[in-house]
Design brief:
By secondary structure, this protein is an alpha+beta fold. The chain contains ten helices and 15 strands. It folds into three domains: 87 residues, Alpha-Beta Complex (DNA Primase, Chain A); 70 residues, no CATH class; 108 residues, Dna Topoisomerase Vi A Subunit, Chain: A, domain 2 (3-Layer(aba) Sandwich).
């Protein structure tokens, strides 16, 4: 990836891949405000992204720039390393960044079939979060079922863990949208073919069947977890599983590892700088010969799901 291509990647979309969700929007979506990803002590959202020109500015630091500048600052890395990070996201689009008139419309590709103004029935808006849940139900929508098929995830596996969620912007916009929903314990990780984000309070680590003596499998995201169950055809109750949902939450593993005496821990993180750093961090928390980096199983691919998809396309599945 060239530097000019990297600068055209949507900052909002990149922050979503890092698990950073908007706090609120202004000017009909042109300005998207965050608690600064560069300053953990930012209690009042002071990190602005102007979606019309695709630039960011941190008012606490009095610094700003383009997408590439942000990655360099956020990862404390070189230009070439930042290009590798952005290339691995798959967010670059031929022709560059093309914001919609009046600001972003992040879910326009997957609007709901109904555009009602009914109040949320599951969860109320809190803390100024950008998106508000309306409904969570069993998976039925053909577009979502097709998306799962393209990701090579068995429907029987998906239906055990995912819901079809409908939601709307918390700023009062009437339009509704839909996506796959993975409940992380406090919020919904929302995903469809054109969007990745959070509906609700924010990111949290998901845990399944934590028991002493179990083998424990650690995944970066729920798509990798579901791909693993599909590929291995395993009964999920036989082992423990941890889905980080964001590598920024990896420090929570320390307390989990102290509380549970797992027989072995297997990590399945991404093949990028963040994934490698996360793997090294996890291995540092574990006693000798208890941690196993399994990323070699999908060498040459960004993550486990990308390997699973390629394997399916070759007819190997």
């Amino acid at each position: 990836m060239r530097t000019d291509q990297a600068r055209t990647i949507s900052i909002v979309e990149y922050l979503s891949t890092e698990g950073v969700s908007p706090a609120h929007m202004r000017q009909k979506g042109r300005e998207v405000w965050y608690h600064s990803p560069l300053r953990p002590d930012d209690n009042s959202p002071s990190f602005k992204v102007d979606t019309l020109i695709n630039k960011w500015f941190d008012h606490g630091l009095s610094e700003g720039g383009n997408t590439l500048d942000l990655v360099i600052k956020l990862k404390s890395c070189t230009v070439s390393e930042a290009l590798a990070v952005l290339d691995a996201t798959g967010l670059y689009r031929e022709g560059g960044y093309k914001p919609r008139r009046g600001g972003i419309q992040p879910f326009s590709a997957f609007p709901s079939d109904s555009h009602t103004n009914r109040a949320p029935t599951v969860e109320k808006e809190r803390d100024g979060r950008a998106f508000q849940l309306i409904e969570a139900k069993d998976l039925t929508h053909p577009a979502l079922l097709q998306y799962l098929a393209t990701r090579k995830i068995a429907l029987t596996v998906a239906r055990r863990f995912l819901k079809e969620i409908r939601f709307k912007p918390a700023d009062g916009t009437l339009r509704e949208f839909f996506a796959l929903g993975w409940f992380n314990g406090v919020s919904w990780e929302a995903r469809n073919s054109l969007f990745k984000g959070v509906v609700g309070e924010g990111k949290e680590v998901s845990t399944i069947n934590l028991k002493d003596g179990n083998d424990c499998y650690v995944f970066e995201g729920f798509m990798d977890f579901l791909s693993f169950l599909t590929e291995e055809e395993v009964e999920h109750k036989r082992s423990s599983y941890i889905i980080l949902n964001s590598l920024a939450l990896r420090s929570k593993l320390e307390e989990i590892f102290k509380q549970y005496n797992f027989r072995a821990v297997y990590t399945y993180l991404d093949h990028d700088i963040s994934g490698r750093t996360g793997t090294e961090y996890i291995m540092g928390l574990l006693p000798a010969k208890k941690g196993f980096d399994k990323s070699g199983d999908y060498e040459g691919y960004k993550d486990y799901n990308a390997w699973r998809m390629a394997k399916g396309e070759r007819g190997d599945s």
